[in-house]
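If you are new to this repository, start here. Below is one unmodified record pulled from the training split, so you can see the exact layout before writing a loader.
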Amino acid sequence: MKLKRFWVLMILCVFSFLLIAQRIPAGTENTGGIRWHPYSEGMALSREENKKVFLYFWAEWCAYCTKMAKETFVDPGVVDYLNNTFISIKVDYDREPKVASEYRVRGLPTSYFLAETGDRIGGRPGFISAKDLLSTLRYIETDSYKTMTLKTFLKDK
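And here is the target side for that same chain:
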């Protein structure tokens, strides 16, 4: 009888854990890294704080998304720059297909840069190294995209 109760309790614990884990979207936890926001909340926060947006589309099954998570998004310079200068929004391609469709996302990962007004500045498909992302973020944040190409911006640095 005690063994039966033990297994019933174990099964309940496992199901409870799975239910709780299912409610927390993967990759949205804030553990001292990048402060990721859901799409609607992040867009509203961008307007409220008058900050540009780094919009990142990803999926759990995407190998290059995992690579960016492990290499690019842990780089202290990237984390610091995004947290202090941009509103970072992370969109799960599979869970938010309407948002992905709105931005015509066809491959993953895909990154967009948006003005404080929500207007699209530009986007980049594929993996972006920490060095390249940091350069692009500086180019966007300084409004250099209004007067020169990224290539010219990088030459001047």
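Two things worth knowing about this chain: The longest strand covers residues 52-58. The chain has a mean pLDDT of 86.
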